[in-house]
Amino acid sequence: MSCLLRVTSRVQLARSLSITRRYSVQPFVYSDEVRDAKADGKPIVALESTIITHGMPYPRNLETALEVEDIIRRQGATPATIAILKGQLTIGLTQEKIQYLAKARGVIKTSRRDIAAVVAAKRDGATTVAGTIIASELADIPVFVTGGIGGVHREGEDTLDVSADLTELGRSKTLVVCSGVKSILDIGRTLEYLETQGVTVCSFGESEEFPAFYTTRSGYKAPFCVQNSSQAAQILMAAHRLQLSSGILVAVPIPDEHAMDGNLIETVIKNALVEANNQGIRGKEVTPFLLAAVSAATGGASLAANIALIKNNAKVGADIAVQFQKLRN
Ligand code: PSU
Ligand code: MN
């Protein structure tokens, strides 16, 4: 009896060891560039891919993605654009892979709820801010740059359309650099929700106001203001030391010369919202629909603003990553 038990437990032990081994293989792959940066302890900046597949049209999406990566390199950091390719979570994309994504059709916009399904089906997935935060955490990349994050949609108190970006920020150790949230969203409620989630929201630079993506002003004050990259890196360091595991959002206003007229953008957004409603656009389609409608209605001016701000954010984010790496070493 005791022998049988021992045999059984040995079999069980062997089984559980092989399961552990199977699961302990890294669930993602690095590009050579990112793997080398990791090995050398160099600063790395994560980048999302939904902006490439669903946020901008071809070929501006491709040009922008490559330029943003180069800006990060010039600041002394390594870019890691993140996506799921044929089911493989990939951290750092070669130029060829970015090119493929920029042109590909049928890529799935991948937020937290979509990741496991996309991986299991071996599909292509472009990670949203939420999806990219998850990957950054797995790979221990603490700084992530984007243009705008998702938020609480207008009338979100009825529809419950609240982006998973906000809950993900609430449970991550990542610092996300963005230009605030677009006024296609309810900015006030988005800030309330970020507070509930415990996210440290900071405006970047002179202004204490939370920026509204296309414009530098939203009418809402950010709870904190950081003057420069070094201050942002210090907040990230404090959050890590305290093991807070709730994220930091650094909101960099669009450079003045690229900012749009607030009244114009408000009118365009109101029309786009009516159109989305008329066409019955729902769920994850809402954000890409509104982005495309706003771009069409402004004759591409909003796209130009979007490109300008993300390049500026890349510079700031890379600098924060460089400063943070110094504090870490
Ligand atoms: N806002 C933008 N550009 C974008 C997005 C938002 O100005 O490309 C994308 C980001 O990937 C963001 C996602 O994470 O949309 C949010 O989508 P949703 O609202 O469905 O959560
Ligand atoms: Mn939504």
Q: In terms of topology, how is this protein built?
A:
Elements: H1 2-24, E1 28-30, H2 32-39, E2 44-47, H3 50-55, H4 60-74, E3 78-85, E4 88-91, H5 95-103, E5 108-110, H6 112-120, E6 125-127, H7 129-138, E7 143-145, H8 156-159, H9 164-170, E8 175-178, H10 187-196, E9 200-204, E10 224-226, H11 229-241, E11 248-251, H12 262-278, H13 286-297, H14 301-328
Parallel strand pairs: 1-4, 2-3, 2-7, 5-6, 7-8, 8-11, 9-10, 9-11
Antiparallel strand pairs: 3-4, 3-6
Helix pairs in contact: 4-5, 4-14, 7-9, 9-10, 11-14, 12-13
* N-to-C SSE string, H for helix and E for strand: HEHEHHEEHEHEHEHHEHEEHEHHH
> From the helix content, strand content and strand pairing, which structural class follows?
alpha/beta
Number of strands: 11
Q: Separation of termini?
A: 56 Å
- Give the mean pLDDT: 93
> What count of helical segments does DSSP give?
14
| Inertia-based shape | globular
Proportion of helical residues:
40-55%
Structural Rg: 21 Å
Please identify the oligomeric state: single chain
Q: Major sheet, described briefly?
A: 11 strands, mixed
Task: Enumerate the spans where pLDDT stays under 50 for 5 or more consecutive residues.
Answer: 1-5
Q: What share of residues are in beta strands? A: 5-15%
Q: What ligands are attached or bound here?
A: pseudouridine-5'-monophosphate, manganese (II) ion
